[in-house]
Amino acid sequence: NNVHYLNLSCTEVSNVCALDNVHTLVLSCTEVTNVSSLRNVHTLYLNNNAFLPKMTTTINEVLHFLEQWAPMAWQENYDNAGLIVGNRMATVTGAMIALDATEAVIDEAIAKNCNLVIAHHPIVFKGLKSLTGKNYVERTVRKAIKNEVAIYAIHTNLDNIHTGVNAKICQLIGLKNCQILEPKNQILLQLTAYCPTPQVLDL
């Protein structure tokens, strides 16, 4: 662990995945297995061919990034932004962006091996009382669940930020000196305080 440079020359390496925190790894071997399981290896040279190990990202990591940009606290009271269908801890195989998460969008996501659909409008605004497939909302949700496709909505929280949907529309039509028409006040996203160690007990 924590090796800057490691050079291995051998006939076979079968447990490469056990190597971790190596900056540069050079392998000269006739047979190597589990290379894709490498973690925290900056650069890998395998038989003089350089490539980066395959990294995985969870749906939760993608959502965390989006919510740092457009916090959930900025959505309107009537909205239902957020993860509507899916497992946060699933590994992302691919992502699609759409205005609406319709049946056709889910079909396309399945065909393209994308298990995350990021839509602007929530497919579900209010609670569903059944999932019998009697309308397109129920059919879309059922299909997404059956095929393990996560549906995430980033709606009015994206509308309400300075770099969101409305800001882009203003830019496209050439508006100047733009500002939020109805600012949201008294929304505390995070408060960080630092206190000297000797004074901690006085708090």
List the helices and strands and how they pair.
Elements: E1 3-13, E2 20-32, E3 39-46, E4 49-51, H1 59-69, E5 82-85, E6 95-100, H2 103-111, E7 116-121, H3 136-146, E8 150-153, H4 156-159, H5 165-173
Parallel strand pairs: 1-2, 2-3, 6-7, 7-8
Antiparallel strand pairs: 3-4, 5-8
Folded structure, characterized:
This protein is an alpha/beta fold and 203 residues long. The chain is built from 5 helices and 8 strands, in the order ββββαββαβαβαα. Strand 7 (116-121), helix 3 (136-146) and strand 8 form a beta-alpha-beta unit.
What structural class do helix, strand and pairing data support? Answer: alpha/beta
Spatial strand order of the main sheet: 1-2-3-4
What is the beta-strand fraction?
A: 25-35%
Low-confidence stretches: 11-15
Apparent shape: globular
End-to-end gap: 40 Å
Order of helices and strands: EEEEHEEHEHEHH
The number of E-state strands comes to: 8
How many distinct helices?
Answer: 5
Largest sheet: 4 strands, mixed
| Overall radius of gyration | 24 Å
Helical content (DSSP H or I, runs of 4+) = 10-25%
Offer a quick outline of the entry.
This protein is of the alpha/beta class. The protein is built from 5 helices and 8 strands; from the N terminus they run E-E-E-E-H-E-E-H-E-H-E-H-H.
Provide keyphrases for this structure:
203 residues; four-stranded mixed sheet; 22% helix; alpha/beta; single chain; 5 helices
